[in-house]
Predict the 3D structure of the following.
Amino acid sequence: MIVVDTNVIGYLYLSSERSEQAEKALLKDAEWAAPLLWRSELRNVLAQYLRRGILRFEDVMRIMDEATRLMSGREYEIASMDVLQLVRESKCSAYDCEFIALARTLDVPLVTVDKQILREFPTDAVSLDEFTGDGIVG
Protein backbone atom coordinates (compact mmCIF):
# COMPACT_ATOMS: atom_id res chain seq x y z
CA MET A 1 0.00 0.00 0.00
CA ILE A 2 1.06 3.57 -0.69
CA VAL A 3 -0.48 6.95 0.03
CA VAL A 4 -0.83 9.06 -3.12
CA ASP A 5 -1.59 12.73 -3.32
CA THR A 6 -4.30 14.16 -5.53
CA ASN A 7 -1.82 15.06 -8.27
CA VAL A 8 -0.90 11.41 -8.72
CA ILE A 9 -4.57 10.41 -8.81
CA GLY A 10 -5.25 13.15 -11.34
CA TYR A 11 -2.35 12.07 -13.58
CA LEU A 12 -3.99 8.67 -13.86
CA TYR A 13 -7.19 10.13 -15.33
CA LEU A 14 -6.15 13.43 -16.94
CA SER A 15 -3.81 13.30 -19.89
CA SER A 16 -0.44 14.81 -18.97
CA GLU A 17 3.29 14.21 -19.21
CA ARG A 18 2.99 12.20 -15.99
CA SER A 19 0.06 9.96 -16.95
CA GLU A 20 2.27 7.05 -17.96
CA GLN A 21 4.15 7.33 -14.67
CA ALA A 22 0.90 7.20 -12.70
CA GLU A 23 -0.04 4.03 -14.58
CA LYS A 24 3.36 2.53 -13.73
CA ALA A 25 2.86 3.42 -10.07
CA LEU A 26 -0.53 1.71 -10.11
CA LEU A 27 0.99 -1.41 -11.67
CA LYS A 28 3.75 -1.41 -9.06
CA ASP A 29 1.31 -1.01 -6.15
CA ALA A 30 -2.43 -1.01 -6.81
CA GLU A 31 -3.39 -0.33 -3.20
CA TRP A 32 -3.60 3.45 -3.20
CA ALA A 33 -4.74 5.27 -0.07
CA ALA A 34 -5.52 8.94 0.55
CA PRO A 35 -7.27 11.21 3.02
CA LEU A 36 -10.89 12.01 2.12
CA LEU A 37 -9.61 15.44 1.11
CA TRP A 38 -8.48 13.98 -2.23
CA ARG A 39 -12.09 14.02 -3.44
CA SER A 40 -12.51 17.77 -2.97
CA GLU A 41 -9.13 18.48 -4.51
CA LEU A 42 -9.86 16.36 -7.58
CA ARG A 43 -13.33 17.89 -7.94
CA ASN A 44 -11.67 21.30 -7.96
CA VAL A 45 -9.28 20.26 -10.73
CA LEU A 46 -12.15 18.76 -12.72
CA ALA A 47 -14.15 21.97 -12.26
CA GLN A 48 -11.31 23.91 -13.89
CA TYR A 49 -11.19 21.50 -16.82
CA LEU A 50 -14.96 21.77 -17.19
CA ARG A 51 -15.04 25.57 -17.04
CA ARG A 52 -12.21 25.90 -19.57
CA GLY A 53 -14.04 23.60 -21.96
CA ILE A 54 -11.26 21.01 -21.85
CA LEU A 55 -13.64 18.29 -20.64
CA ARG A 56 -17.38 17.83 -20.93
CA PHE A 57 -19.60 17.34 -17.89
CA GLU A 58 -20.00 13.65 -18.76
CA ASP A 59 -16.22 13.28 -18.82
CA VAL A 60 -15.67 14.87 -15.41
CA MET A 61 -18.43 12.73 -13.92
CA ARG A 62 -16.89 9.56 -15.40
CA ILE A 63 -13.42 10.47 -14.13
CA MET A 64 -14.70 11.23 -10.64
CA ASP A 65 -16.64 7.96 -10.60
CA GLU A 66 -13.64 5.91 -11.76
CA ALA A 67 -11.29 7.58 -9.28
CA THR A 68 -13.78 7.04 -6.45
CA ARG A 69 -13.99 3.34 -7.31
CA LEU A 70 -10.18 3.09 -7.40
CA MET A 71 -9.86 4.64 -3.94
CA SER A 72 -12.86 2.87 -2.40
CA GLY A 73 -12.08 1.34 0.96
CA ARG A 74 -8.79 3.21 1.28
CA GLU A 75 -9.98 6.74 2.09
CA TYR A 76 -9.31 8.04 5.56
CA GLU A 77 -10.43 10.81 7.85
CA ILE A 78 -7.41 12.43 9.43
CA ALA A 79 -7.29 13.74 13.00
CA SER A 80 -6.87 17.51 13.16
CA MET A 81 -4.25 17.19 15.89
CA ASP A 82 -2.06 15.03 13.62
CA VAL A 83 -2.35 17.52 10.77
CA LEU A 84 -1.70 20.57 12.91
CA GLN A 85 1.36 18.95 14.52
CA LEU A 86 2.83 18.54 11.04
CA VAL A 87 1.88 22.10 10.10
CA ARG A 88 3.74 23.31 13.19
CA GLU A 89 6.83 21.34 12.16
CA SER A 90 6.90 22.41 8.50
CA LYS A 91 6.02 25.06 5.96
CA CYS A 92 3.56 22.77 4.18
CA SER A 93 -0.14 23.53 3.95
CA ALA A 94 -2.63 21.73 6.15
CA TYR A 95 -3.90 20.06 2.98
CA ASP A 96 -0.46 18.60 2.25
CA CYS A 97 0.01 17.61 5.87
CA GLU A 98 -3.12 15.44 5.70
CA PHE A 99 -1.34 13.19 3.21
CA ILE A 100 1.80 13.00 5.36
CA ALA A 101 -0.27 12.27 8.47
CA LEU A 102 -1.96 9.38 6.69
CA ALA A 103 1.34 8.00 5.42
CA ARG A 104 2.68 8.05 8.97
CA THR A 105 -0.48 6.45 10.37
CA LEU A 106 -0.37 3.63 7.82
CA ASP A 107 3.44 3.41 7.98
CA VAL A 108 3.73 3.59 4.19
CA PRO A 109 5.31 6.20 1.89
CA LEU A 110 3.50 9.14 0.34
CA VAL A 111 4.11 9.17 -3.40
CA THR A 112 4.08 12.73 -4.70
CA VAL A 113 5.59 15.19 -7.15
CA ASP A 114 5.28 18.07 -4.67
CA LYS A 115 8.79 19.39 -4.19
CA GLN A 116 8.00 21.11 -0.90
CA ILE A 117 6.57 17.94 0.63
CA LEU A 118 9.58 15.97 -0.59
CA ARG A 119 11.93 18.56 0.91
CA GLU A 120 10.09 18.93 4.24
CA PHE A 121 9.32 15.25 4.81
CA PRO A 122 12.12 13.24 3.14
CA THR A 123 11.59 10.17 5.31
CA ASP A 124 7.83 10.03 4.69
CA ALA A 125 7.54 11.03 1.02
CA VAL A 126 9.00 9.59 -2.14
CA SER A 127 8.91 11.20 -5.56
CA LEU A 128 6.83 9.64 -8.29
CA ASP A 129 10.06 9.48 -10.34
CA GLU A 130 11.83 7.50 -7.64
CA PHE A 131 8.85 5.23 -6.96
CA THR A 132 8.52 4.28 -10.64
CA GLY A 133 12.26 4.26 -11.31
CA ASP A 134 11.81 6.92 -13.98
CA GLY A 135 14.44 9.46 -13.22
CA ILE A 136 15.83 11.88 -10.77
CA VAL A 137 15.29 11.14 -7.10
CA GLY A 138 13.54 13.92 -5.19
